[in-house]
Amino acid sequence: MIASQTTECSCKHIVSVSLGSSERNAKSTLQLKGQTFIIERLGTDGNLQKARQLLEELDGRVDALGLGGTDLYVYAGGRRYTFRESAKLIENVKNTPVLDGSGLKNSLERILINRLAADKIIDFQGKKVLMVCGVDRFGMAEALVANGADVTFGDLIFGLNWDHPIKSLQTLDSFAKLLAPLLTKLPVRWFYPMGAKQSQRKPQHQGYFLENDIIAGDFHFIRRFMPDKLAGKTIITNTVTAGDRKLLRNAGVRCLITTTPSLDGRSYGTNVMEGLLVAASGADKQLDAAVYEKLLEEYKIESGLEYLNGEEEHI
Length: 315
Prior knowledge:
Blueprint: E1 12-18, E2 26-32, E3 35-43, H1 48-58, E4 64-68, E5 73-76, E6 79-82, H2 84-89, E7 98-99, H3 102-118, E8 128-131, H4 138-146, E9 150-153, H5 155-159, H6 169-183, H7 206-210, E10 214-216, H8 219-225, E11 234-237, H9 242-250, E12 255-258, E13 262-263, E14 266-267, H10 270-281, H11 289-298, E15 304-307
Parallel strand pairs: 1-3, 1-4, 4-7, 8-9, 8-10, 10-11, 11-12
Antiparallel strand pairs: 2-3, 5-6, 12-15, 13-14
C-alpha cells in the first residue's frame, strides 16, 4: 500500500521503507516550530522487490525517504563502504533524498551518551557495557569509551555468530576494515535479522547480556538474542514499539533510553529522524554532522528515557 499523498496541505511528509516486519508499521504527526510533519514507516517483510517498488513509486511524492531494516553505508578506517544490495534498492530514486540514518547516528548518539554522563543520569566510569554492534554506531561506541565505560563489542558474536568479543575501538576498527569490503557485497539477511525474523526470539550468547550492566545498540539484535530475564539492566537503543516496551518490562529491565523521542508510543529509527531533519532544512541530500547538531538543537529533538521497573535514580 502506497503512503497517502499530502498535496492539500503544507505538511512535510517523510516515509521510511523498511525491509523489516510490516507488523511494526506506524504513522505519526508532529509539530516542530509551527511546521507539520507526517512520518510513516512501511515494512516489506524482507521483500527486496517490494521495497524497491515502493521507493520508486514514492520518489518525488514525499519530502524525504528513509531506508530501514538495513544500512546503506558503513564506516570503517575513515572510509565509507556501500552495501551493494541496499544501493540497488534506490538506484532509480532520482528526485527525493534517501537517508539510512548513518549520517545522523554519529551526531545524535554521541550527543546522547555525553549528555547522559554530563547530566549525571548515568555514570559510565567503569560500567560494563555490551554494545551488540559497534561498527554501525561508531559515534556511540567512541562516546561510551571516552566516558570510561568498559565496553564489549558484539559485532562478531551477534552479526557472524562467532563467539569472539571485541574489547577495544582499535580492534573493532581493524576488524571493520578487514571485513567491510567483503560483507557489503553480501546479502544483508545473512548477518542481520530481516522481515519476520525481527519478531522471532532466538536467545543466544546470553552470558554477555547477563554479565554487563548496560546493553546498547541495535534493538533487533537485542530483542532477538537477549535472555528472557534482564533484571536491573539499562537498555540504550532505538526503534522500540509499545510491544517491545512490554517485553522489556516483563524481562525486568530497569531503564530504557531511546536515541530518538517517543511518538505515539514508539521511537522511530534514525533513518526517519534523519529524513525529518533533511526535509525540515529543505535540503536534497544528507547533511553533515555540524548541521545535524544545529538542527537537533533548533528543533529541540531529544532522546527518550523511561524507567520500566523501579524508581528514577542515578544509574
